[in-house]
# Entry
Amino acid sequence: MLNKQGRSTTPGDSAMETVATISGHRGLDHEEPLIFEIGRDGVSGVDMPEVELKNDRLGGLTRKQPVGLPGLSEPEVVRHYVRLSQRNASIDAMFYPLGSCTMKHNPRLNEKMARLPGFADLHPMQPHKTVQGALALIDELARWLETLTGMPTVAMTPKAGAHGELCGLLAIRAAVNASGEKRTRILVPESAHGTNPATAALCGFTVDEVKATADGRVDTAALKAKLGSDVAGIMLTNPNTCGLFERDIVEIARAVHDSGGYFYCDGANFNAIVGRVRPGDLGIDAMHINLHKTFSTPHGGGGPGAGPVVFSERLAKYAPLPLLVKGDHGFHLIEDMEEAYVSGARPFGRMCAFQGQMGMFVRALAYMLSHGGDGLKQVAEDSVLSANYILASLKDVMSAPYPGPCMHEALFDDAFLKDTGVTTLDVAKALIDEGFHPMTVYFPLVVHGAMLIEPTETESKTTLDQFIATMRTLAADAKAGRREHFEGAPKLAPRRRLDETGAARNPVLRWSAKPPAQAAE
Amino acid sequence: MRYLPLTPDDRRAMLAKIGAGSIDDLFRDVPQSARNAKFPLPPHAGEIEVERTLTKLARENVAAGSEPFFCGAGAYRHHVPASVDHLIQRSEFLTSYTPYQPEVAQGTLQMLFEFQTQVALLTGMEVANASMYDGSTAAAEAVLMAQRITRRGRVVLSSALHPHYSETIRTLAELHGALVMPPVTPGRAEDLASLIDNQTACVVVQNPDVFGMLRDLKPIAEAAHAKGALLIAIVTEIVSLGLIEPPGATGADIVAAEGQSIGNGLNFGGPYVGLFATREKFIRQMPGRLAGETVDANGRRGYVLTLSTREQHIRREKATSNICTNSGLCALAFTIHLSLLGEEGLKRLARLNHARAVQLADRLCKVKGVQLVTAIFFNEFTLKLPKPAVEVVDALAGKGVIAGVRASRLYPHERSASDLLIVAATELNTDDDIAAYQTALAEVV
# Structure
């Protein structure tokens, strides 16, 4: 999740001495130039025959200028990217309690299964009879998702959480249009992920914000007051972005339904309730599931993800193409609108080419099969237990805006830093020096200087205790005026604080060859 | 349960610290009516059982590499060097999040900066973003961007744009204006210029088109620009840019492309990697993440995510797009593979693809009644068959040849498409594959 609200992006006075070396490298931390600065002409890391094109069929539309790519051998490329990798934090190497992101262990069995040639080496448009196992896998994953959510249908193609939101809202739009009603407003709580209002706006709805109550939940009375014949629906995250379960959710769903609207639930925080609570029992009409959060497909430095969307009976027939159906000759995909109509469906359209993130589906199903129903319930319970343990262990030295219990993440604000001169950002950067990835900071926006800590269920108690001990010391130091952990932090990362303001003011978004005159200097 | 570190003792100690009597206490905010859900699911399983279950499903498919294989139409079977898959599985790349804390994410950020540069170079454009979900969603975002820039709604789509792309664009862009598309004319460029008017935001053309035909984008760019519209060039086979004129050199304003062909396997359709490039003057209207160069407090060069004021987490309902993530690991695979190829390797790869396709087209056209529909092409072409393509594809699959994608699967309501077959060849097709295809086709038609 994001962490850019309200933070200072200038490095300030954090500059200080580093150990000078002759090479510029520092032990295992190597300074690595850009690939364009290493490469040269006449080398390639791939051997391939040179063919003569005697009678080409290119119609003269050939490239006139070289691309400008550098040439490198395989060992150079491997070393370059290994060195770059060593400049990243990762869940494999460290505690990564990034709230709202569910940074849990990524089992390598899932990687191995996704690479089976029978899944990885399948073309999306092979004849259906040659891909029956792949279609069966998608069907099986769909069945798990339907069972876990208590919803009758799932659209598998959305490629990420935000893409899933889009899918859900487009289905709501289609349902509203089919009814002939004019419903143009979507209610979104002020604590929502930024993708929620952005998605609603993309679908042509106007966004109407709903206030939060003092206990970190959506204000049910305020929400009900906004409902009316022009409201298409609400987008609510549950558990919400403050890490709390929306207690009134069933009542909210009923009120929305009574007014003729639809209930979209942002499923980003499904990890807290998987195997324990079915969103279908809460009155939800559509919800995306981030396979890269709850079901452990790796985040990969920012994707690829997958965001299948489950639908209630009311919205099921608007699910997008393609539709996976099982007939007399096995599985097949309905890819055509007319064929879908004949089957009674009313798809709103298509989200993307082909049939979704198959590579992620295999990983997610491997994860589900590994855990089973009992294991998934334990996932939810351990993630909630760990977050509450952190909340209970830190609330006396930090400041928790809402009393527990929380769900899978513990939220703190910066009241405990008042008048210390230390900010939430400083705490985050100090954690880097301590060998932890920072929590999500400055989100959600509804609390000041937010710190959102999501430990997940895959951390040992020993790790949690180490983190707690570190946080307690940092909090005590801040209050006692001991600034050395904070000032100029991080000091031990590959880079010190970076000038984000400068980067945005004068954007340099690509490498360019220096003009010859300058290069000669 | 091998992925869960907490022991029963740990759980008891933690509950005691919390002051909760049981785990149920922590779920007390869940409404009573939702507390007793039943989940008819199997119990947890060991690695051996999971492998057995999934391997069985995998075996029920015909892997592309197991037979002579010629499908394209937006996804291409290329060789991926072994080092690519090794490097992308390094923990630090695989298990990191979006680089929000740049001091400990320089690996991902520098890689994205390199990716952006490579995409800009390859497409001949000034700037590129840090990737999109895939080519089709990149295309839809490109159309939305053109509608924002021009403040116009009307969109002209080439009828030889991959129909999945047209449908994806329609899903989002129709809200803001009408979509116009001329009749389908496989193997012939349709008249797009006459459809562009003063209300047109953009014209969207794929090159090579869905039938494999190469297009000259220059006249379309001129016609679009004369009316104040933008040209969006779509590329689904990115290897083609090793050999043919890049869209940037032919007047494209936005390029949306599928990058799967470089570094990424077929994966039954995903995950792939969308490439998105444009002119520098449009960067603040661009969707998606951007890595930018900056300095740290010690003056050392470093990279950050930048221009985030365009994005949903700052702008919320006023954002340029709702996109939150990119396709990071697939972008990494693309970048590593393209770094391995370099200028020489990419050129050789592209030439080899073209040579294979020419060889295949010539051989298949020797079969009685089979005609080449696309006179100029890169590594994919369309054949007109003497029988419905659906029967031919089926019969050839029975003979162990995956012959290509029948046009009727993409254009189910186009009667002229029923006997058309879209065929791709890559560096992975051997002389034996091509001979086997010719022999089998002669038996079938």
Observations:
- The mean pLDDT of chain B is 96.
- Chain B touches chain A through 209 residues (CB under 8 Å).
- The longest helix of chain B spans residues 328-364.
- The two ends of chain B are 56 Å apart (CA to CA).
